[in-house]
């Protein structure tokens, strides 16, 4: 981490300060205490009336919480990128003693002075200056409350994780839902003529009947007979959530060998009894989230289930309230109306986290608002009755994969935060421009959106939904009547991921076929190993009919299906990559001293956790032929330009950089060709001796195009009134 600089004021005695053209003089107050006058300069030239302070006075209400390791500007750039509204400096020299003290306090203690305007906070950030000898501030705007929540998370190197419940972590059934599913399968069997599928449905019905009988015994006797052993209930106390409630004792039977729990939502009403199957490896994922008392993630739940049911399901998953304390439970378990979209903005309605710092674990992508979908890690739906062996078919269980994804996301986010954003923020001065702010990481940068769920083919039919949907839960647990015509449960059709999905170092999931429980799994061991190599080398691995490793083609496969072609391409790529990978990793990870036949990760399928903050690092490959200094400057500039492009575009629009096929003449010179596209429109092209230089040229041309375009086909992808103009702020007064 860079070392903070000393502010200029301590070393500079007295002197005057001239006002730059366009400045507006305003009086400053801390509460009712007068601090002196300040000259305020808008960030945009000619921006009449754009200064954010009402009544032309700056009235500070409070100071932000102290930040232990992150300067306020780094926090603000993370949660509200490029939100600098204006700059201000003391008008008189020497400055008023109260203003001088405020400046030094903010600079030395990593605080900001907060002006509250409606539901917005204006943070005055103390800045060092190359020229000025008076207190200087940048003014950044952010939604009220979000800064205070983000300070603690960024200092602790903590992100947020949001879990779905049904078919992601659990499958739950009442007597009614068991009967509905048994009847549905029986109807399907009556019209089926394929003996293999009939056998599969028969086995599925048998599994449903077995668990239904256990639930019926629990309802009737408060006991179950498990493998000849009678197991009685234990009374488990439900901790009161904030707002208070009477002490509740629920009858519960836990059957760990079956990964099952029987509970009663309303202890007084036996018909609210539920049979719950927990997804395998949940204990491992939960242990990671709470390991060594170190908070890696703030945990939330977002579900379409009924609230009492959701609270009880989460209590079964987190019985000791280690992931969500009872004090926070009411706000952290968010129930969404069935059929509506889930949205991170609604999950964090208490302003406990910014959506950019949150990832989601869910079995469905399309239930999330489109702008949040890049932050969703999609897991295969949990189907313990349809395909009971699905969870164990891969060497790495589904929730262990989710743990690996969370580990990589957190590591990547804070590596970017520490090594890029934080370092560059420490170098910024009062005289710098908006364009000089560094790119701010987003959880979505480290996830690949893909729907890994069931995709029916010509022969297979989709499995019926397991457990209870959101609408079912409220009806069944509240004892409503069920007419016969409501027993028909529609089949669910799940779409597969599009061709050409880019995977970033993590095993993907399983494709479950309707064969009564047996499965075909992808990716193969070859694919998994390649993904792990990509993670360790911090390189993007893409699987199509070819394998691209950092945009270099290293394997080609031909098969009857896309999955078969991917596996063959991965096997060929692994053979081609073997020698280069081993020689690269030897000095970095000592891989030559390990058993190369051993699957990646630890014995339970987990990747080793990444050490964060100042320990986050990855050695660069030796023998680089790039001019490191020029390359570093190009990367810095590229990240800033891309950030500005993102600010111009609507939230669901993204500029894509395409690596163009090089012609024969260019190939001789080793040139790279990139073009920047938005909605199919080419915005800019770039040519360079390496990828980053070519990307930078294309990005700068694209930024210029976006700021000056009159083409309606391009303007429809831009934010309204966002034709930004970034002036050069005068450094000489």
Automatic annotation (TrEMBL):
<feature type="domain" description="DRBM">
    <location>
        <begin position="542"/>
        <end position="579"/>
    </location>
</feature>
<dbReference type="Pfam" id="PF00035">
    <property type="entry name" value="dsrm"/>
</dbReference>
<dbReference type="GO" id="GO:0003723">
    <property type="term" value="F:RNA binding"/>
</dbReference>
<feature type="domain" description="DRBM">
    <location>
        <begin position="640"/>
        <end position="708"/>
    </location>
</feature>
<dbReference type="Pfam" id="PF03031">
    <property type="entry name" value="NIF"/>
</dbReference>
<dbReference type="InterPro" id="IPR039189">
    <property type="entry name" value="Fcp1"/>
</dbReference>
<dbReference type="InterPro" id="IPR023214">
    <property type="entry name" value="HAD_sf"/>
</dbReference>
<dbReference type="GO" id="GO:0008420">
    <property type="term" value="F:RNA polymerase II CTD heptapeptide repeat phosphatase activity"/>
</dbReference>
<dbReference type="InterPro" id="IPR004274">
    <property type="entry name" value="FCP1_dom"/>
</dbReference>
<keyword id="KW-0694">RNA-binding</keyword>
<protein>
    <recommendedName>
        <fullName>protein-serine/threonine phosphatase</fullName>
        <ecNumber>3.1.3.16</ecNumber>
    </recommendedName>
</protein>
<dbReference type="InterPro" id="IPR036412">
    <property type="entry name" value="HAD-like_sf"/>
</dbReference>
<keyword id="KW-0378">Hydrolase</keyword>
<feature type="domain" description="FCP1 homology">
    <location>
        <begin position="154"/>
        <end position="402"/>
    </location>
</feature>
<dbReference type="GO" id="GO:0005634">
    <property type="term" value="C:nucleus"/>
</dbReference>
<dbReference type="InterPro" id="IPR014720">
    <property type="entry name" value="dsRBD_dom"/>
</dbReference>
<keyword id="KW-0539">Nucleus</keyword>
